[in-house]
Amino acid sequence: MVRSTPASALRYLLREYQGTARRSSSAQTPQQRRANLKFQKDQEARRGKSEDQIKKRVEKAPKSPISMFWLVVLGFIVFGGLVFEVLSRLFLN
Prior knowledge:
Blueprint: H1 6-24, H2 30-46, H3 51-58, H4 68-92
């Protein structure tokens, strides 16, 4: 017959708790994984470069939040109506 001591019982409980604590931690979401990969890629690109080289890369002009396609569509809506109105007044009067 095996006798359990309080110390061995405590070790058993601690091992069980640590096992469940590891299992209960959630995995990375795809969004977190993409962010981590982007950060890792950025850090690898910075490795071995001076601060001046890194700052030059950061100082590039930011991209426009509106694509060129939507700017053209908006321009056509605003100015296209004006052009059609002027043409209709010139040729139909």
